[in-house]
Amino acid sequence: MRRFVTALIATAALTSLGMPASAADGVKIGVAAPLTGALAKMGADIRNGADLAVQEINARGGIKGQKVSLIIGDDKGDPREGITVANKLVQTGVLGVVGHLNSGISIPASKEVYSPAKVTMITPASTNPELTERGLKNVFRTIGRDDQQGKDAADYALKAGYKIAVVLHNKNAYGQGLADVFKKNYENGGGKVLMFDGIQTGDKDFTPVLTRVKAQKPDLVFFGGEYQDGGLLVAQARKIGLKAPLMGGDGLFDSLFIKLAGKKAAEGSIVTFPPFDKAGAFAKTYKGKYGAEPGAYSGYSYDAAKVLLDAIAKAPKADRVSVMAQVGKTRSFKGVTGTITFNGKGDQPGFKFGVWRVQGGDFQLVTK
Amino acid sequence: MDLDLGILGQQILNGLTIGSMYALIALGYTMVYGILQLINFAHGEVFMIGSFLGLGTLLGLEALHISLPIPLALLVAFVVAMAGAALLGMGIERIAYRPLRSSPRLALLITALGLSIVLQNAVMLLVGTEDRTYPEAFTEALIDGFDLGPIHISYQQLFTLGLALVLMVGLTVLVQRTRLGKAMRATAQDPVTAGLMGIESNRVIAYTFAIGSALAAAGGILFGLTYSINFFIGYQAGLKAFIAAVLGGIGNIPGAMLGGLLLGVVEALGAGYVSGTWKDVIAFGILVLVLIFRPSGLLGERVAEKV
Questions:
Q1: What is the nearest CA distance from B127 to chain A, expressed in angstroms?
Q2: How far apart are CA A106 and CA B139, in angstroms?
Q3: Average pLDDT in chain A
Q4: pTM listed for this prediction
Q5: Residue A29: domain span
Q6: What is the ipTM of this complex?
Q7: Is residue A344 part of a domain?
Q8: Which positions in chain A touch B139 (Cβ < 8 Å)?
Q9: Is the pLDDT of residue A138 over 80?
Q10: Which residues of B touch A262 (CB under 8 A)?
Q11: Are residues A44 and A154 in the same domain?
């Protein structure tokens, strides 16, 4: 009996490790994002971006005559689910993964799952600095970092004359991280932070915290977090007569933020996000395929997939280690979001965030 | 710490607003418990479905190009959602609880939990997982407000509190002054004897479910007009309302109202004066304290020993 079990385990191990994934069934890459849950909209944006890149390469005959297939994973915006999905993707034999959205998922998944399996992870959306500060060779991002974003936000706020701020965050790696950076830079620049507090993401009633904020009479309320909470925050702020504008990071950059808040309440909100051309060729192709405007991270996800596919095509061997090394060599890659060059950490030096304001019910670029 | 009375008043108002929604849901828990000694865990989902029915009605009116004045459209939404939820509540009772009425209490409790999961997932498959808001025409009509001294009252808060009050008074009148109310009280006291006196207990129980569910649906629309909704809101709101019912003394109708309002105020003061992150810890801590000193809740009666 024991021998039989051993044999069984050995066979299973052989089938999962021994077979080069690309030999029989083409090239596989993964995309992992929250496809259900409160952030499902941004998750779908990321999936579509990667899907578009894969469709385009297959239309041109794939990579070295092999078709590329995209394995889709739903991390539900939950770190535990994220680890499970990452493991599943690794087991299906992907060479690399585009994802995840949340820094709180990208950070553990890259270290605990992708790194031991030598799987390249390129995130289009996770901005927490820690992600690329751990010496992991398999981690890259096509988006910028929050130490940059938080500084740009603080600089703009001070320049625009907001001298007194209240800082709120959603207690997760992304939100609190961004709020910390903003606070540090804002105070260094001479701004005053009167209150720094967390909210429970998923809660619906924020009026008690906002009433406390209102009593401080701030010029500005900075929120580190995502649109589903940010939209409610700004809507409820208006209801209790708190007039200071809400400012936030890339997690708020979605039309759903304006929809959840209501156009009237969202007006004047300030969001940092890289500048991009809303009416470019990519936006047209994307809209033709998916029937919706590209979301915040669609372009970054498309570029992440393109960088990954390009590296797979150029790598001397189509295995995980060669692909990882090849992605690390990405220099001046022309993407739809800009020219991508990875440094030794997997970041893009010189990545720029812009400042957008909600005007007339839509995001308008204020400064580049 | 210097205490600003204006802010204190504002926080109490904030608490009463969400608290009145808790209270509307808590009434359904407490009424069903009063009659069947059953904790109807599917009740939170009835609240959630009521909220979606209201949203669906408003969107349906919009899609059919029926443009009613805002108050009239809201009235239609309340009627449709409350009637729909009442039918749903009666259906739940008929299909899931009545066949098990003579089974051990645990079987009913498990059925209730299972039903809650079924309803939640059904709605998830039907409408998806994203947050939705009520149409802007309605939420923005209520966004402004007026100042009463140092307190800013939004029309939305006024509407929520006013409607909740009307519904609670209506329920009290129904229970205390009508034949149906008398039958409900009699059945709660002793179903067998009530039956012998000619009260059709099945019908009374069905009406109890219908009334509780309609109140939850009204709470659901008020919730939707104020916040955003998704398939999962029934879980948290249901849990809070259940706590409110226990706090006030489960089975006791004024207790559920008091418990809901009190829980809302305690939460608001916790989030307003301590920290948004400690809100739930404070609310649950107070619940534990109350139950240590008054195990049957604030207004709950001590059950007399049967001789």
A1: 12
A2: 36
A3: 91
A4: 0.87
A5: 2-144+279-336
A6: 0.87
A7: no
A8: 235, 262
A9: yes
A10: 133, 136, 139-140, 143
A11: no
